[in-house]
Amino acid sequence: SNLVSHQRTHSGEKPFSCQVCSRKFAYPSDLTRHQKIHTGEKPYACDECDRRFTRLSDLITHQRIHTGEKPYRCLECGRRFRQRGVLVKHQRCHSKENPKGSEALQSSESQVKSQFKSHEIKLEKELEGQEEEPNLILFPSP
After folding, report:
1. Which intervals of the chain form a coiled coil (predicted)?
2. Are residues 58 and 44 in contact, defined by beta-carbon separation less than 8 angstroms?
3. In 3D, which of 120, 107, 47 has the Cα closest to residue 81?
4. Both 36 and 47 in a single domain?
5. 23-76 pLDDT, tens per residue?
6. What is the DSSP string of 32-86?
7. Which of 34, 53, 68, 112 could be joined to 44 by an S-S link, Cβ 3.0–4.6 Å?
8. Domain annotation covers residue 85
9. CATH number of the domain where residue 53 is located
């Protein structure tokens, strides 16, 4: 029932277990979504660049790269973002606890991450044509 399902939110009960890795979930839909990690199933494809995704929500977020849509707006400064999480992180720059200049640092970090992602996508496309296993290129995490 809906009440029993809702009560799991408060109790922390997770009766649904993954047969592959034993990870537990409160809801069967969460288990189903998780199992796609093991099967490699990615049913949602981007028409623009052929990337595939496990979840429809991830595809929708990704498509904003192509459309330029930025639906999340900072009420403090008006800046817009593609992802809600990035907006939330940005909003910290307006808090009193944040040191001056952190906005510039955050912008710089964002640019580096964006450039790295572009490079990563380009590299993936180049490697798609190779038949043998490519050499791994490791980058330090930002």
Report:
1. none
2. yes
3. 107
4. no
5. 999 999 899 989 988 998 899 999 999 899 988 999 999 999 999 999 999 999
6. HHHHHHHHT---EE-TTT--EESSHHHHHHHHHHHH----EE-TTT--EESSHHH
7. 53
8. yes
9. 3.30.160.60
Say yes or no: 58 and 91 in one domain.
yes
| Residue in the block written with tokens 């929500």 | 57
Average pLDDT of the chain is: 80
User: Is the separation of the CB atoms in 47 and 39 below 8 Å?
Assistant: no
pLDDT at 78 over 90: yes
**Closest Cα partner for 86 from 66, 63, 114?**
114
Q: Distance of CA 89 to CAs 71, 98, 103, 106, Å?
A: 15, 12, 11, 9
The per-residue b/e assignment along 12-31, b for 16 or more CB within 10 angstroms, e otherwise, is: eeeebeeeeeeeebbeeeeb
The model's pTM is 0.52
Residue 80 lies in a domain: yes
* Residue type, position 113, single letter: K
